[in-house]
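=== RUN LOG ===
request id: a7f3
mode: sequence -> structure
chains: 1
length: 782
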Amino acid sequence: MQYNLEVLNDKEFELLSKDLLEKVLQTSLQNFKSGKDGGIDVRYSSNSCFNEIVIQAKAYTKSAYSDLKRVMRKEKENMDSLSPSPNRYILTTTFSLSPKQIDEIVSMMNPYIVSPQDVYGRERIESLISNEHEIEKKYYKLWLTSTNVLETILHNGQRAQSEFYESLILKKASLYVPTKNLHDAIDKLNENKFIIISGEPGVGKTTIAYILICDLLGKGYQLINIDDKISDALNLLSSNHDTKQVFFFDDFLGANINEILNPKNTENKILNFIRHIESSKNKFLILTSRTTILNQANDNYEHFAREKFDKRSKYELKLNHYTKLDKAKIIYNHLYFNNIPEDFKNNFFINKNYLKIIEHKNYFPRLIEFITNHNNFDIEYYNTVDEFIFKNLDNPSEIWKMAFERQLEDEDRFLLLSIFSFAQKSISHSRLEKAFINRYNYEIKQNNITKKVNAFNRSLKKILDSFIISIKTADGENEYQLLNPSIADFLINYLKDNNDERNRILNSILYIEQLTGYFDPLSKNKINLKNTFLESYYSTFLKLVNKLENRHHSFVILDILCCFDKFFRINLIKDSRPFDVYLQSLVESVPNSYVMSSKLITLIENIYKSYSKKTRDIVTLNWSTLMSLIIKNAYDSNDLAELANLHSLYSINLAEIIENENINPLLQNKISKLFEEYARDFQYIASDDDIIETYSNTGIDNTLTFLDEKLWDSYSVFFLDCGLSDYYDSFNHDYDIDTAHVLSEVIQHYEHNEDDYNIDAFIDQSPSISDEYKMIEELFER
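=== RESULT ===
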């Protein structure tokens, strides 16, 4: 098997060489701090000879054979001056060496290399690793990036339309430091089938999730990414126990994306999905969340509270327990792998600055990533590299401000703010380009910006991998998203304090999402728009909405109406004609239309409370049409339950509407589909234990009867949740649920309750030295 030895830093390669050669030589070896004992990395000393065998490990990345030759000439001088002289010299290197090159090295090191067999190039190193399973497990990064495993990861991650591609996997594996957090995460995932990785921004939640996913992909699991549409993921959940799947919901409950658009319903969907995962074989769910957002969900979401979600701490992993040695390894890896100029790198070693960084109260991995990137060091802004390092450590909230203001040109900022303004997890290349061009043309016309050739592509190239990342979708199109959520946090706060920049975004929107995402008249977590500003912005908004992309689509029309209602209700009371025009457009666009029912319900409620009789008349005259729209797009029983409230509010007879020949079949079909989705999670209806106990005690026929009874009991409760219990006789309730298939699945799961995933590949790589500071000193010894 081939291994990517380049994911190991020089110290890790030395330890790997020691472990491999101990197996080959069948003896224990000593390793030394760098630069000590004439440059010896590893040696064997017998009673008769102090330096009987000297071993040097040479890890090279982006170097040529000529570099190795130059180093070996220096090694010959070191061995000549070493006392006592070694009887044998062994070289290990990451270079792939030809027989001719091996002979040349043997000749150069005469008489110390006694045989060509004492030169271990890449191929021999890889062969030794593949034959030593314990060593392969110990150096987890090598296993993860080995040819066979990497190909499996790429294959199984491809359908997820995610960022699991080779160069990124190798980069993340190189920088990653296995810690106790990873072991805890694996234990919890195996124990509970799902894990919520929570923590503060920048602490490494997504990184650990990423490594867990890579490990599962490498073991044959298929990755399915979840956005805010939990129902889509539920449809992709395979009932086949042999189908291995891992579902990933990054920053669930919000943060990375605008917000979960219908939290009242989505929280129930998440809990429903978790139950499915718990009762399925070879299925895992990985979620990440900021601690503050998770706490808000536990405090405010009814279903979370009902499920005692906040008490189920066994599913939550908090990433606040990095040891000093973990922190040191993270710094060292960034310095080693990031191709940093020596004069910049030296500043981390002078006066043991690395130790000051490790012990700094504001240490967190994302900040280390920032300060070890020499491109972030602006010589005109910082007097010294020391000032750059510790000023950002002292004020971590400022890490993006300097780069945004000083390193980016106008066009780069326009592009970055265009991506940000959508408030979505990712944005397609075509939509982003259109939004940027619209912003660019506005700036050229209103602010005298000089137009540059190919501005979009030039700026895209500049901010890629520094502020944004690119993802290739299944259809081959690129999508873009912010590098991490802290950039969104920075931009929100930046725009809160910068009205001019805020207004330039609002005056150049091309998509309604650019207004509905991060702007709000009241929310503290978003960018507030005061009434005085909204009054002046109203006329601009009216002009902009007439030029919006997709403005004739029903879901966009509804979003426009919600913007009218959310931002300009005071203005609309004076003149509701623009609002009425779009409301009329909505009811005329109903055939095959999609809207979010909860939004439409809220809008209809607000129209009754705050709008003129003329506007309310549009609603009542088109009542059946609007009710059909709500029913058709109902997300779950909560949406249907709102029908009774709406009819009561407008004093319209719900019984007559239900009897409508168009409404009745539509409502019956929706109830049927929602209950079938509900019934897919049989844990709502009867526990596996109850089903198995009934089956064991009474046999198959009685169990099927038991399931039928439980099913109809649950249906009655579900119908009550829909708010339609008074109209039970108006519907046909003849549903065909295959209880025999349900029983078969429960029995099969009961007989095969162990997943194929295991934690065999993970072993602590820490050296066996008790003094942590000594270990750190040795790591940074040059």
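=== NOTES ===
Residues 700-721 form the longest helix (22 residues).
The CA atoms of residues 52 and 87 lie 5 Å apart.
=== END ===
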